[in-house]
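Inputs:
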Amino acid sequence: MWLFDELLASDLPEDTWVANALQRYFPQRLHGEFATDIERHPLRREIIATVVLNEMVNRVGPSFPHQMTSSTGSTPAQVVRAYLLTREVFALESTWASIEALDNVVADQTQAELLMELAGARCGPPRGSCARGAWPNRWHTRSSAFLPRRAD
Amino acid sequence: MQYLQAAPASASWQVPIKEMQVRFIQQRVPEPLAFEVAAAATSLAALDLAEVAENSQQPLDTVASAYFAIGDALGLARLRAQVSALPSDSYWQALAKAASSDDLASLQRQLTADALQAGGLEPWQKSQEIPLDRARRMLSELADAKNADLAMLSVALRELRNLA
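Outputs:
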């Protein structure tokens, strides 16, 4: 919830690129006819924040935002933005989809391993820190080249 | 992952990637996907390469060759492995570890850019003969150490800074 409030208070939901999440929230069939109504939805910002947060936490885990804010000094909004950028730059959606398409083709265990390897979450429970998986995002949150360009 | 073609196939850091790929293929994962996931840990290099290529206005494969050649010449892959083997039990340890690996990445970028500017690896190595020698000696000493700690690694990074 802290994260949600932070995002809501930031300018992240105003970013037109991030705001694509709003369309994803509504069923495909509404996109054509009601596109302008969707844009004017009174809870527009709340929906965008919820969708991007959920997507991120589902993929990289609930401790990720805290880890990134504390290790890079970035704001939660910057972390989310960096996460989304990383996902796009490395076309991770399509890789995730190919792994998920292996349902009943490979063992569950293998699928989980692929996903974890990709997320860099290759740390055992006792350690609990996933520094290795954090790197592309770390790079983005640090990189002066990426964030300002995205922000304007 | 195309950039990996510019890397020497014999490089020691390629071994775990190959092994993981083979293991996934044995578990019936399609080959391209197995490779993509196994080599995912190298994507950091892709960002570094893109940045150096952009700044130096050099083609990507020229940059990639120089980048991997430098990594090989200095044994940076081993250093990276030593950094990631550092303990991160406490908050500060984790931060220090992250900072060292950031430093290492920025060093490799910087050195690659320098080498490109000097006209390639060889002229660059010639111009840096003395500090390069020192750095190599220190790194090989470090390579022999069983459990390199943060103190050793920060000194090594400092030594590499002298090259940049």
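Remarks. Confidence is low (pLDDT under 50) at residues 121-135, 142-152 of chain A. Chain A touches chain B through 29 residues (CB under 8 Å).
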